[in-house]
Design a protein that fits this description.
The complex is a heterodimer of chains A (190) and B (240). Chain A is of the alpha+beta class. Chain A has helices spanning 2-7, 11-15, 19-31, 42-53, 58-68, 72-79, 101-105, 108-119, 161-189; strands spanning 93-98, 132-137, 149-151, 154-156. Chain A is globular. Chain B has six helices and nine strands, in the order ββαβββααβαββαβα. Chain B has helices spanning 23-29, 82-96, 113-120, 159-166, 203-207, 216-239; strands at 5-10, 13-18, 54-57, 63-65, 76-78, 147-149, 174-176, 183-185, 213-215. The chains are: A alpha+beta (190), B alpha+beta (240). At the A-B interface, α5 and α6 of A face β7 of B.
């Protein structure tokens, strides 16, 4: 199934698939027979892929469509109906901006816009280096801290535009430190 | 095979047609215009989503969508009362409250069904009576080898999805997302080689009642013309 699909791609499209994605696709292919090839299995299959890999790659959706004998447009149409499905790989630092009622009132939209501008991606996207992904969520149960943002699994309270800058800078600094650490280790071992 | 004919009365006029025909179709065929956007002939299960084709039928409570209604002998239909006009106008205003087409530079200008319906219902294409909702859509979606789609003009009638799914082979376009963010999507058309054959089909672009779906070729030719005309006009003005 996968091989055929890959063979049918344009060379440029084939080249755009990195090892990480290929691994995911192979896993999807291997797991597929767990489910019966019936339309009623569409959502369970999608949930399974989302749960294991954090998103639904386009080629995986094509495999699901072929497996169930429906069109990829139908699969995508159904998947986009639900908020739980993502179509881009999650970033190493997933950022979730709360736009629940309280956070909305306290300017959550502005915070989202700040992240979008700072990271140069729009809501629902992942940065090309997969470092950041940005999404909007409904109330996360921290209304007293509005506007709230979840970075990784940490809740950031009373977020302001300058705090957005601070959050990103902190991640960048940590990244730079980790890289230096690794270099030092490598130098010590090599 | 002879079909059983039945007689109905529409706005005082007697009309005979095969039993079980759709009321909307019968009216249109007899020059009784009823606005409609989401119906296409041959549909076994019309979506009845635009609500523009409302009529009243004697003995039935409320108004009914004539596109779904099958005629019965002796049916008495009103299609032109003030109440009906008002209800259709409400449906129309709801429809255009999220619509953002620019008619002057639209490929469907002057043969757009939405324009015709606006005229018939005596409603502006931009309603002031409902808050306008800007949907967060791109101006153009063109990730299809042959087709392009302007979501802000789309009335989501579903005709394109319907005809495309009647074609046994080929790429299938479909709805995506939900609620106010619903959209027609070409998702996966890059993976499906049959999407390149759409050039020889274009059925979806033909049934689109507005200018939301076109072939890329036709569209770029049209845009080039528009640009040329604009330039000529500017040149004329500066030479005056
Ligand atoms: S051109 Fe034909 S096959 Fe292609 S999307 Fe439109 S209706 Fe479907
Ligand atoms: S693209 Fe045209 S035919 Fe398709 S849903 Fe929109 S308005 Fe209707
Ligand atoms: S609305 Fe944002 S935490 Fe409740
Ligand atoms: S044509 Fe009947 S509801 Fe749209």
């Amino acid at each position: 199934m996968l091989e055929q699909l890959l063979a049918g791609l344009e060379p440029s499209e084939r080249a755009a698939i990195d090892d990480e994605e290929l691994q995911i696709l192979k896993d999807v292919e291997a797991e597929m027979p767990v489910f019966a090839a019936e339309r009623s299995q569409l959502l369970p299959i999608l949930q399974h892929i989302q749960g294991r890999h954090g998103y639904l790659p386009k080629l995986a959706l094509q495999m699901v469509a072929d497996y169930l004998g429906v069109t990829i447009g139908k699969v995508y149409g159904i998947a986009t109906f639900y908020n739980q499905f993502k179509f881009n790989p999650p970033g190493r630092n997933p950022i979730k901006v709360c736009l629940g009622t309280a956070c909305h009132v306290k300017g959550g939209e502005i915070i989202l816009e700040n992240f979008e501008r700072r990271l140069e991606i729009t809501e629902g996207q992942t940065s090309p280096d997969r470092e950041y992904s940005l999404e909007r969520v409904a109330c996360i149960g921290c209304c007293a801290l509005a506007p709230a943002v979840v970075v990784g699994d940490k809740v950031e309270a009373y977020v302001t535009p300058s705090k957005v800058e601070g959050i990103i800078t902190e991640i960048e600094v940590r990244k730079a430190m980790a890289a230096r650490e690794q270099e030092r280790n490598e130098a010590a071992n090599g | 095979m002879s079909e059983k004919l039945v007689t109905i009365t529409v706005d005082g006029r007697k009309i005979s047609a095969p039993a079980g025909s759709r009321l909307l179709k019968v009216c249109l065929e007899n020059d009784i215009y009823i606005p409609n956007l989401c119906y296409l002939e041959g549909m076994s299960d019309p979506p009845a989503s635009c609500r523009l084709c409302l009529v009243e039928i004697e003995g039935e409570p409320g108004m009914v969508a004539s596109c779904r209604c099958e005629i019965r002998d002796g049916m008495v239909v009103t299609s032109n009362s003030d109440d009906i006009l008002k209800m259709r106008q409400v449906a129309f205003r709801l429809l255009v409250s999220t619509n953002d087409g620019h008619c002057n530079t639209c490929i469907a200008n002057k043969h757009c069904e939405l324009q015709q319906i606006a005229k018939f219902l005596r409603q502006p294409l931009r309603t002031k009576r409902l808050r306008h909702i800007d949907r967060d859509y791109p101006e153009i979606i063109d990730d299809h080898p042959v087709l392009m789609y302007e979501p802000k003009k789309c009335v989501l009638c579903g005709r394109c999805v319907y005809v495309c799914n009647q074609i046994p082979k080929g790429y299938k376009l479909d709805f995506a997302r939900r609620g106010i963010n619903t959209i027609i999507s070409f998702y996966g058309s890059d993976l499906d080689p049959s999407s390149r054959d759409c050039e020889g089909c274009l059925a979806c672009t033909e049934v689109c009642p507005v200018g939301a779906l076109s072939s890329k070729k036709k569209w770029s030719r049209f845009i080039a013309e528009v640009k040329l005309k604009q330039e000529q006009k500017a040149a004329r003005q500066s030479s005056d």
